[in-house]
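Could you help me review a protein record that somebody else here produced? Here is the record exactly as it was handed to me:
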Amino acid sequence: MLKHAFEGKLTEQWRKENADKLETAEQLLERIKHEREVRYQHRFEEWKAAVEQWEKDGKVGKKPEKPKPQKTPEKLAQAKILELPTLPNKWKWVKLDELSLKITDGEHFKPIVTKSGVYFLSAKDVRDEGVNFDNPIYVSEETAIKARKRCDPERGDILIVSRGATVGRMCQVDTDKVFCLLGSVILIKAFPLLDTRYLMYALKHPNINREIISISGATAQQAVYLRDVKHVVLPLGSIDEQVEITNKLDEQISNIQGMESDIEDNIARSEALRQSILKKAFSGQLVPQDPNEEPASVLLERIAREKADAATPKKSRAAKTAQNVNL
């Protein structure tokens, strides 16, 4: 299903019907590039205002830090593109870095744990179905503020386990709860111009997820590094087609989950029926009772007599012959 989705087969007919309405992947990338520049200019203007205020206040405290321009992501080499499967017209192979506002990871230190405060989650809390808060640890508000300056997970972001036995497992943040991350989890913030569900499904594509896991085995300690994740290659279509693909995948996955639920219910009913049949069988309710049949007590007495008779030693033929001779 995912294979067909990201080869363009799932939306092939839809694409034909909407061909004149769709922008190309290249046009979408240009819009993303423009959005990067706008965002930087906005941060730059905020910094200028902060510096002016700092100067008015007598330059008390540390001077506001000037924002660094975000590096233009390195594009995929043409030689690499030629090695990849052919995509539908208007699609394009791109690096994950080209589609992301931020790719970072959590804290690389052991935090001071508190009894309450802000959630501090690790690889064990990243589940296929979403972020899990069943067994969290907490850190202070001060620690959380410092941690979230660099790594600030929010609803819609993608989390990938980067170390340990579950490396490559991922989920989309499905909560508005504030939390921090340990370094064993990578955070991906996609551009708002993209459908983050599309990005999530693409990263779960068997070939792409296999690539992420294989990257982790390239070092002595199984781990996925940020530089490698940035270079993961994905197929990109127009935003309208991204939405169409994710809607179709959501629907099909929902149907599959419904069928799985029905199967589990049927298995449970089958097991309950089996237990009911066994109970009736051994309580005499499975077949009609014949009042003329001997009771079980009589049957047991007869079995006991037969066992006793079988246990009584019989004289051998030789012994009988010897007895006759003596007589």
The domain at 2-22+73-260 is CATH 3.90.220.20 (Adenine-n6-DNA-methyltransferase TaqI; Chain A, domain 2).
